[in-house]
Structures are given as C-alpha cells and as structure tokens.
Write a structure and sequence with these properties.
Length: about 325
C-alpha cells in the first residue's frame, strides 16, 4: 500500500472550531461521543442532458478523550485537550451517464488537539490517516492518505477574534496547501458572524441554546475509482474528483443532556465531476468532465454524548451545551 497526501473535504471544520472555541474557554472538559447520520443528494441532470448523477451516504463516528490537563496562571487558565476519532462511511452514487452505480467507502483515524497557552491565544490542530475507495479499488490498490491543519486563534476582545493558519485540503477538488485567514464577531444578541477564508462564511443566530447557522462553503472530495468506464489503457484505477458550493442552514436540536439531533439542508451549486489518472494530476485531458445541475440536499444526524464530569473553570459567563467540544466533527471525512 502507498501513502498519499490528500486533504479532507468540506471545511465545516474551521467554522465550527470558531463557534466552539468560546465554549472551550468556559467548559474545560471533553467527553466521549458517538454520532451516526446520513446525507441525500437527489439525482440531477448532467451536462444539460437526460443522464443524471445523485448520491447518498451514511456515516458513524466516535470521539474519545486521551489527555486533559489544565492549570490556573496569573494570565488566566491554561489547558491542553487531546482526543482521538474514528470515522467510517459508505456512499452509494448513481452515474447514469456512465451506465452504473458505484459504492464508496471511507475510513479514518484522527488526532485532534486544542492548546491554550496564554490568556487570549490558542492553537488548534488535527491530523488524519484515511482512505477513500470504491467497492472495487478497495481490493485492488487501496491507499492511505495523511491530511491535517494547524490554526492559531487570538481573541482581541470578548466579541472579536482573528485566526491564522494553513491546511492541505481537497475541498476544491484539487490537492493544494491553502492558507487560512479568519475573523469573527460576537454580538450582544448572541449572534456570531465568522469568515474563515477561503473555506467558510457563517452567521449564527437565535436565542441562547436554540440557534441556527446560515452558511456558504465549498465542498469537494476525491476517491480511487475502478476504471470500467473509460479506455483500460488509461489505468485500472483512476481518480474521481467532485466539487460544489453549498448554501444552507443547520441546527442542533437537544433532546436531553446526552442526546441531540443535527439537521442541515440547503442547495448545492457549481457542481462538477471529473477524472484523472493520479491524485497529483489536477487536470487530465484524457478524461471528460461533467457539469451537474444544482439541486437540494438534506443531512440528518444523531449524537450521543456520555455523561460528563463536573466542568473545570468559571462557567459564570454562561456556556451553552450547544457549543460542546466535538473536535472530530470539525473536519468531516466526506
């Protein structure tokens, strides 16, 4: 097997990091949690023809704390949180323009960390070992990939922060290292506005404990793909690339202190599918590309959080359980 550097799609991660980081300063504990869920993209026309492309996938994820340390210094609380995550998903995709359906599998192991070394500054990082294969390539030429990001966050005031860092990522359907530049504001009505470029812009609003998030973000991915659709001399295993822009709204509904439901829906635009002979080759003239008509999508997930021990630190500022620390969801695996 080979190791290839391929970034994770879908940078919901950075936005949620920002939204949850204020809660980290209020709730210095991390508890195991388990999530299951799925997403549906209804079939849409390809290249303005009658052929269609659609997909749906289901996932399971578990996050477990490994290290939790904290101490109180003159300049405030210092802490270090380290967790591990396991993720698995299965996707069924319909390629009517190629004449078949295909099943894709994803598996990953990740390490997530937050370190707060000074009063208003913190570091956030994640590294993941994973694979993305279809139901044939998983037996032929499976490959592991290493992905990750490193971010520095500084709170200038209680209502404004900035973030700097970088990530290696496939969110635009091509593997490139990208810088991260972010700013965020928290308003008196508990709303927040974050712009984490070039990955996510989000506005969170509503009453405390009952909030919604409007967002726009790129969403892309890659996978090994068994080549039974094109000339075989182009390789038995090729690479499928997809990219799109999501405009949507999401909400987490608390059922109890331990159970919650996540709902997300919106519109996928600017959708494109392409193929190449290798992961490092962004454009390949030997393969066609396809434009997919925009359309709606819907995601639904269920999360169980184990009972947490008494949180450390001052919670008088009113941390909410909606902002619980769940690092493994910050960099989705598909």
């Amino acid at each position: 097997m080979k190791i290839t550097f391929i970034p994770k799609p879908n940078f919901i991660l950075v936005c949620f990091l920002v939204l949850s980081s204020s809660a980290v300063a209020q709730r210095y504990d991390l508890t195991p949690n388990i999530s299951i869920g799925g997403t549906i993209y209804p079939a849409r026309n390809v290249n303005d023809q009658t052929e269609t492309y659609g997909r749906q996938f289901a996932y399971a994820r578990i996050t477990v704390p490994i290290v939790k340390t904290f101490n109180v210094a003159d300049n405030g609380l210092k802490f270090f949180l380290l967790s591990a995550g396991l993720h698995a998903s299965a996707e069924n995709a319909k390629f009517s323009f190629l004449g078949f359906n295909r099943t894709f599998y994803t598996g990953s192991f990740s390490l997530n960390a937050i370190r707060k070394a000074r009063g208003k500054s913190s570091w956030l990082t994640k590294g993941t070992l994973s694979y993305f294969e279809d139901d044939s390539s998983v037996y032929l030429h499976p490959s592991f990939r290493v992905t990750g990001f490193l971010l520095y966050r500084h709170a200038v005031t209680e209502s404004f922060f900035y973030m700097l860092g970088g990530a290696y990522n496939f969110v635009y359907g091509a593997g490139i290292p990208l810088p991260v530049l972010g700013v965020g504001w928290k308003f008196a009505n508990h709303a927040t506005l974050t712009a984490i470029l070039p990955f996510n812009v989000a506005y969170r609003f509503g009453k405390r404990g009952n909030q919604y998030t409007l967002f726009i973000k790129p969403n892309g991915g890659v996978s090994n793909f068994y080549n039974n659709a094109f000339s075989y001399n182009k390789g038995s295993t090729i690479v499928l690339r997809r990219r799109e822009i999501l405009l949507g709204i999401k909400k987490r509904i608390r059922l109890s202190d331990q159970w919650s439901i996540g709902v997300e829906g919106g519109f996928a635009a600017g959708r494109k599918i392409s193929f190449s002979s290798s992961f490092t080759q962004r454009k390949d003239e030997n393969f066609p590309s396809y434009t997919v008509k925009g359309g709606p999508y819907l995601s639904l997930g269920l999360r169980f959080k184990f009972k947490e021990r008494k949180s450390f630190g001052d919670t008088s500022s009113g941390g909410t359980t909606d902002d619980q620390l769940d690092l493994d969801t910050l960099l989705p695996n598909y």
